[in-house]
Sequence to fold (226 residues):
Amino acid sequence: MLQPNRRPPIVIAIDGTSASGKSTNSKLVAKALGFVHVDTGAMYRTLAWYCLQQRIDVQNAKAVAAACRRWKTALKCSDGHAYLVVDGYYPAQEIRTAEVSGAVSHVATVPKVRDWMKRKQRECIQFGNLVMEGRDIGTNVFPETDFKYYLDAKLEERSRRRAADGIQENLAARDQRDSQRAAAPLMIALGARVINNSQMTSEQTSGTILADIRKRLADAEKARGR
Ligand code: DC
Fold:
């Protein structure tokens, strides 16, 4: 049946550097709005984990692309989060290990992997309004959305946050790999609001994003009513 007044789902794109607070803030924003949260980094991590499991060399782009073509996955949504399962399993803990963190940005440079991920990430729209966090959501996955945010913080502050989570990681190297890859590199999307949260709490960061979204939704509503 035709439903002429039904609006398409809203996508809030939250991109930014590693440890810039994307995860914490996207979850807070999604919860406040009642939208589904999607961590696209977790999807890349899941593929990196799968490759390590299958003893596939993550630096061999052809082998990684072949694995991505073959693996048996499904998108699931529960408790306000959408995620990818492999053979019916979501490796929630396993994808956070140092080994996977070291492997993931290699996997993420493979163009065929990025095409596959983009398709899957766009399919998440089946779950309704989304808050999607990543590196290329505003530039590549949902470039058509009006709601784009780019988070960043000083390198020392980001390293401090990672260390506070008990994770030692060379963030500068990862930023460099994410920004310099040929396929969908990390960059600020046209029209994105940039928030440097070095001196901000997550309540302040998510509050800034929420205030902006609510104002723009109210303005759009008013404009429609005119
Ligand atoms: O956000 P994260 O640290 O979990 O991301 C893991 C890796 O995946 C990171 O190196 C960047 C990559 N990534 C990406 O290239 N594009 C995305 N949309 C999300 C993550």
